[in-house]
Amino acid sequence: MTEPKKKIRIGDLLVQNDVITEQQLMTALREQKDTGRKLGRTLIDLGYVDEDNLLNFLSRQLDVPFVQLRHFQFNNELVKKLPEAMARRFRSIVLAQQGDELLVGMADPLDIFAYDELVRVLKQPIKQAVVRESELLSTLDLVYRRTDEIASLAEELEDELGDDAFDLANLSAESESAEAPVVKLLQTLFEDAVQARSSDIHIEPDETVVRIRQRVDGVLQEQVMKEKRVNSALVLRLKLMAGLNISEKRMPQDGRFNVRVKGRSIDVRVSTMPVQYGESVVMRLLDQSQGILNLDGTGMPEDMLLRFRRMIRKPHGMILVTGPTGSGKTTTLYGALTELNKPEVKIITAEDPVEYRLPRITQVQVNPKIGLEFANVLRSALRQDPDVILVGEMRDRETVEIGLRAAMTGHLVLSTLHTNDSISSAMRLIDMGAEPFLVASSLLGVVAQRLIRRVCDNCREPHELTDQQQAWLAGFNLDPLDLEVGFVHGRGCYQCSNTGYKRRLGVYEMLEMNEAMLDALRRQDVSGFTRAARQSEFYRPLGLCALDYALQGVTTLDEVARVAATSESDVWLEADLEPQPASAGGETS
User: Fold this and answer.
1) 452 has which bridge partners?
2) Which helix H or strand E contains 210, and what residues bound it?
3) What is the model's pLDDT at position 165?
4) Which of 34, 106, 358, 586 is deepest in the core (most CB within 10 A)?
5) What percent of the chain is predicted at pLDDT more than 90?
6) Which residues of 25-62 are buried (b: 16+ CB within 10 A; e: fewer)?
7) CA dist list (Å): 403 to 11, 48, 375
8) Phi, psi for 480 (deg, rounded to 5)
9) What is the pTM of this model?
């Protein structure tokens, strides 16, 4: 089928070509004997040779191409000719069909055993290419998605259930077996979600199908399964795992459980809801193994981060973090708590739910069913001698007033509020029934935030502005040099699931209270407060923060327009920018 390859000793080649010395080779061979790693990897880890130099050297010596996977467009049908287990074992991936040969990328093209096994499995001649091992491993996670396996397991589960209505008790007992199709289906579903970096999994029954949707970088990706009856088995198993009532199908239920996926501890929050064709389940995935994000990892601009750190170190007062659901408020607050968490500081939190477990911090799970509301927890927490209190959300007048009074009496209070921007947050507290003098006496500042999607580095390309976008940008009076830098967008590739975006980052606006704003608050003067806020020294609206990232080539103008559209149009354009009438064209997204 193809000529057998002769074994080549990489160490001898490198010494002969003066890439490394004989002494370095001996040292690397001793290290290799202790660690069991490949000689090439050992040489790289010891710093004797750069990875790119080594791969380029092998490419020249073996007369094979060096392929950079981050820029490669894959054919899924060709990739799946090689089973995932074999691809991972032999650090290989099928790249292209070249005549009657397959071009196969290998991290170690000198591995004769791997070469022979690949020829045997693929059943046709292969031509080798050299690829970076680090790029290969991340690529395998992306190209070997579990969608086919999920569909296959769903079909297997459908066959097992048969035509008759299944017995819940029997299925419950059978599900204890790790080999039960429903268990394997859920395991595969979680593994696929972790590979794709999903934050949520939605299982939704329809009239004739079941839809499984995963939220990746804030956008849902859908897989449709024709095996409709699988939904009941999945819901039942998830209820058992979350400790919910399996016989209750008419009322929503909430629970949580923990699973280990590929060595990572994933905390799963489960919410069930009765719908027209059964029960819908939404699972929020929280990766506990990654640890708590600190403030440096939030993406907050350095000058704002410095002022925020100064604010959270004040001995008393209230700080609010605002934004819609899923905007990263909790991450910012946990980052603040991580910095404040010291042996000499007593911290108590009231959360619904407790998302991450933090050492040394007293965390209380709110439970409305038994009357344990935010206000009750906050009232009791004040008798526990705290220095810092975190309230998950300012939901009602009672919670707001207790929080404000706690901030007046020597406590630092952190909380969240669902508003669109920082300016409207202070007035929102008064609208909820808080006394204006209380708000003015206690509020230190407000941080509003959103999450925007990053352009995929693998498929980014220059973006030519449309007439609408040019008219819209004219309202910002940008420096012509900024526009010459050029905007970008993602073309769409395998790495970003053809969305053009990969991962997200936060955009922020921060409002620190000053005397002019506090005076307007006491008088409940909305326009005066807005005017004072916009004229304050460090205030910079969300839309402009997002536009900075677009000018840097980090995100797209569509993402900027989306963020700007969620704020009041007269707020996010700064007064000194003197926007033209064309700026109303924020509909370009």
Assistant:
1) 505
2) strand 210-216
3) 37
4) 106
5) 21
6) bebbeeebeeeeebbbbbbbeeebbeeeebbebbbebb
7) 68, 60, 8
8) -55, -30
9) 0.69
